[in-house]
Each structure stands twice: as structure tokens, then as C-alpha cells.
Amino acid sequence: MTPIRVLLVDDQRLVRTGFRVILEVEDDIEVIGDAADGAQAVELTTRLRPDVVLMDVEMPGMDGLAATRRIVAELRDEAPPVLILTTFDRDDYLFEALQAGASGFLLKNGTPEDLIDAVRILARGDALLAPEITRRVIATFAGRGGPTPEATATRLAELTPREHEVLVLLAGGATNAEIAGTLFLGEATVKTHVSRVLTKLGLRDRTQAVVFAYEHGVVRPGG
Q1: Where are residues bearing 4-aspartylphosphate located in the sequence (predicted)?
Q2: Domain 4-128 has what CATH class?
Q3: What is the Cα–Cα distance from 54 to 119, expressed in whole angstroms?
């Protein structure tokens, strides 16, 4: 089995060392490098091409949110999933991270098991959006005026009715198994629908699908 190649980004050496110790105990995870700031993170991600980047937010120079934007913008389809790690449970960090293209968001006060699971989840192409995070996304978009109906229709015109149903369920934070149960489909079929939804809308992962659905009024809080 090829190990999951991870890049660690944090301005504190002790934190990076601690994460390395936690992750390298696992046979299927390999830490291939570490960076102390955002600029280093962009350079190492471009050169080493890790499978997952663990990104701190507050760092000197280029912070983690700016680095995530650079990585996603410069590498595009080849950009690895970025997991934002922070001690600050702040909504502004959360939504900036999602809009920057991060695939997950985890607080540093979690357990080692949480970190290991998060790396594996992102490495297999899924996004890490816990139910409480989904609720906060909903709350944030609750009072916003969405795009015009014409703009929404243009972005969504390529979706089939079934794919639209899948997008609505994704926006509620449903897993593939939950979507399969709701729509009476097999999980393999659901995976295909999810992949097509993301491709047609130009989205990288399920996290962006949630943000897109609320920004474009596909679903509304309480709906």
C-alpha cells in the first residue's frame, strides 16, 4: 500500500513535531516535509506534491488562508486537499477557509484519532465537514441575498433532476450512505452522481458543494 504523503504547515516547531509523531505511527501515513509559514507551504506543495496538506491559520508573513488560496489557484485540478488546523474556533476563519478552497477544518483541541481520520478522509477524496460546521454554514448564509435567478439557472442548467436532488442532500451534510437511503439508490450510484455534480458545477469537493448550494439559493435555512 502506498502511504498517504502529508505536508505539515505550522509556525510552531513543537506543534509540527507533535503532529509528525502522531501521524508517522500509522503504517499508511508518511510525513514528507514541514513548513513554518505560508510561503514555504506553497513552495513545498508545488515541489513535493503531497496527498494532503495540514495548514495552520495564523503564521508570520503569508498566513494559512492566503497560502491555501495560492495552492488552489496555482495547482488547480492537481491541488492536494488542504485541512485547516487552528486553535481558534472562529466563524470568520471557517468561512474564509472554505471559500479559499480548503477541504476540511479541524480544531487543534481534537484527539490524535481525529487528526488521523481527517487525513485519511481527505486522502480518499472526501471532504471533512462535520454537522456542527454545516450548521454554521447554514447560519452564515441565512440572511444573505443570493445571486439572481438567471445566474443560478445558468450554473445549475446542466444538472439532471436526480443530480439536483443529490446536491440538496449534500448541502444538508448527508453522507453517501444517507443519500443512498433517502433516494433508494446504491452507494456506487450515489458516488457517480456526486462526482458528476462536482464536475458540472466546477467544484473540488463536497465542502464547496455545501457553500455553493447556499450561496446560489438551491437550499435555504429551514427549508
Answers
A1: 56
A2: alpha beta
A3: 8
